[in-house]
Every structure is written in structure tokens, then in C-alpha cells.
Amino acid sequence: MSRHAEIPFTKYHGLGNDFLVVQTRSLPRSLSDLARAILSRHTGVGADGLVVVLPPRSKKHDARLRFFNTDGGEAEMSGNGIRCAGAYLLGRKVKRGILEIETAAGLKTVERVAEGEGNWTFRVGMGAPILEPAKIPFQAADASAPVLGFLLRTHRGVLPVTVTSVGNPHCSVFVADFAGIDWASLGREIETNELFPHRANVEFVKVISREEIEVRFWERGVGHTTSSGTGSCAAVVASVLNGHTDRHVRVRTQAGVLEVAWPENEDISLTGPVERIFRGTYYYRG
Predict the structure, then answer these.
(1) What is the rounded distance in angstroms from the CA atom of residue 27 to the CA atom of residue 138?
(2) What is the CATH number of domain 133-266?
(3) pLDDT digits (tens, 9 = 90+) for 103-141
(4) What percent of the residues of the chain are helix, what percent strand, and what percent coil, each to the nearest 5?
(5) Where would I find the H helices in 64-178?
């Protein structure tokens, strides 16, 4: 028997990476099914991701978040999605300047840096990068931490890659330019490489200077996105580990700039904008 539900949502985007944020007591039992339906750009509302806001497990925290991709898969963390949730929570009368939010990748802090009419800038405490292969997870028998210059077999031949996690698994590929490489096809292939048991987010990184990189993103369970918060963090971590950049880096995405800092022996911070697009009600027929 199908179940009908009216689900209020708010849509935001962080540099073109768009998310639907929902918080309701009457969510369907299968959030994966809901995600596939509501995120469809033809028969649903359409977005790159769904963020479900839930009560926190600890009363000391402001919320607990679950992130879902367009294919219904659940992500541990989303750097752009958590900023969208921060904007949503501020709109729900949460007045604290720094939010503490529970995710599957651990407790994250979201600090409001600036606020306008329907737009915000947030700084997210992303935690420390994970470099141990078993914890990423990355199942190459000969890989050791950090995984730099690993020779990954692809249809283009063998590519040197850097493998990290910022709460979700990432594979970073350095390129001289984007025009000379079919990066979307490569991203699709690398995402499902057998060495990544949880699949991988893939970044193609062009180094501009010691303080700036440009990146193209292939997100696990979504595909090409114009920006990615965790992808930007992973690209900067890879750039620092390979000696290409310093530790405070501007990340040029196809939709604008994110700022990533990884001070030595400290956590990563991600700073970027959020814009509210619209509110509505989705009529779900599960």
C-alpha cells in the first residue's frame, strides 16, 4: 500500500550545490526512497542532496543531521549541506552564533560569519583529515598512510592519486588543465573502483599558486556538482600533503570560491556562502 505524506522543505544552495532541508515528525520509514523521489529533477523537487534535521542525541547540541544523495545513498558528511542546515536552523529561531551539529562523521561546529537577506556565510569546523587507508576506507594491500601518488588503474591508464577522508572517502587527481581530460568519465569510473568499498568522491585539482587551486567535482551518488565542501577540503589536504600549496587556500569551483584552512596539527575549516532559494511542500507517494 502506498503512503501519502506532505513534507515541507526549504531549498538552499552553496555555490550551486543545492540541497533540500526537511524537518518533520511524519517522515517516511525509508529515507533513501524519499531521497530518490524528492531529489529527482524531473518528477520531484530536484537537488543534489537531501538533509534531514533530527533531534540531537545530546541536549548540549543543536541538531543531528543525515545526508542523502540523489541515488538514495547516505553520506557521512557534506560541507555544503551542513552550511545549508545551519541557515535552516538559524531561521528556526536558533540564536547561537556557533552551532554544534551531530553527523555520522562526528560532531561539527558551524559558525555564522555574515548574514544578509536570505544569504549567509558560515565557517565549518570539519575535523581532522583521515589518512589511514583502513579508516578511509581504501583497500589497496600496498597502501600506507598518507596515500600519496598511488598508481590507480583506469581506462586512461595508470593515474597517480591521493586518497583521504574528511568524514567521507575522497580520491584527488592533479591535472594540468581540465580541457585535456574527460574528468567526468574518469570520476564516474573511479567512484566505483573496487578499492573503495564505500565508493569515492573524486576531485580533479589544478594548482594555480601556493594559495589557490581550481577543482572539478564528481560526487559519490550524485555525479558532477558545481562545488563540493568536503571535496574542496580533500583537495586542499591533498595539495598540502603533496607540497603544492600552503595551508590556507582559496578553492575556485565552477560556481565561486570556498576558503579552506588546515593549520598544522589542527582541524580543517571550511568557509563559504549559502543562499535560500525557496520553501514549499512535497507530496510524497511512497
Answers:
(1) 34
(2) 3.10.310.10
(3) 999 999 999 999 999 999 999 999 999 999 999 999 999
(4) 15, 45, 40
(5) 79-91
